[in-house]
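ARCHIVE CARD
SHELF: 3
SLOT: left
DATA:
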Amino acid sequence: MRTCPCPKCGTLKTKLAPRNGVTDRLLGSLTIYPFRCQLCTHRFTTFLGKLKPNPRRNYDRVSVQYPAEVRPIHDPSQRVVVEGILSNLSLRGCRVRTNQRIPMGCQVMLEFHPAEYDDPIMVDGAIVRSRCAEGIGLRFSSFLRSEERRLSRILALRLPDHAI
């Protein structure tokens, strides 16, 4: 099977990206599809020569089990702490298993403790995008470049190379 390397960073950890807009749809009819690098987030197009369905997500999620703390940004005292287990992770979001409720759309900070590092990874800004009985889904909106690199290293070890 053929893989599609990222032209920016060279990794094979790329994924067919959702097609957005008229241009992507027209190119798709010519079997030219958008791809997204799972590590550096670069989006690029490439010719595949065969028809592919439109994927739902830009980033693959990996299964993890890391202790996590979520703090609402609107709480200046930072006394409200929601503890849970980070159960899946991508470069742009995660799911946190918790019994505590946080409203949809709430802006939060996330701190989680991966086994690969002694220090926790901090996400300065995330938005609660989904809720269910088992927990919350977060979309990362801002974090330091150094934290993004640490997260990318974790994903590089866990993400498979995709075959097209």
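SLOT: right
DATA:
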Amino acid sequence: MIRWAVLGSGSSGNSYLFSDGSVSILIDQGFSVAELKRRLARFSTTVESVKAVFATHLHPDHSRGIGPLARMHHTPVYVHAQAIASQPTAIDRLNIPSGLLTSVELFEQVEIGPFTLFCFATSHDCTGSVGWIISYGGQQYMLLTDAGMTDEVQLRLAQESEVLFLEANYDQAMLMNGPYPLYLKRRIASSSGHLSNDDAFAFLDQSGFRGSHVYFIHLSDTNNSVDLLEQRAQRSSPVPYTVCAKGQCYGMIGST
């Protein structure tokens, strides 16, 4: 059995759990170790089961807890090679112990227990930003977040996936009419910013995704609404869906 949980998704911290009950992995770790333990406990998972952390990018809400976890529990960390090469200060700030940081290239496969993972490029204003594919028991799970635009590679990967974790960060009207300064609105809506609700549903349509479930993640507290996205998903989602607000999402699926 594979279990997954959205431990947190948004500007206050991000982390996604995948586990078979014995071996667990995290995509991102934006929390203190104490907070991570509390969130893992909600899903009957211990930090000792976490055998690796895979980073999407080095913005603090996705990475600030990676170093403390590595130092306290000797947890291996995997980061895209371009992020490591281009952001030495950010890497140094994480203070990952020697031997625990591994550089990975796009589509390079990494095996952790029963899981096989590889990363793919995303368009975000943090060099070396990636999404991740997690494979288990012949099924593929895709996590695509913090991307200002999508591409043909991502569309193909989504089409091949059973479960999709997909960013739906903002509603266009809420963003443009909201309180953010103009420069920040432009950053969010740019090709290196975030995916809007419209972008998310266009991606589902263009990819032909027909897996078992889509989880909408990384909703903005200011520029999106759970109710608004729920209403849109009821009309437009081609598959069963869950709108994830601050880590209130989890699921189980049998292995094949």
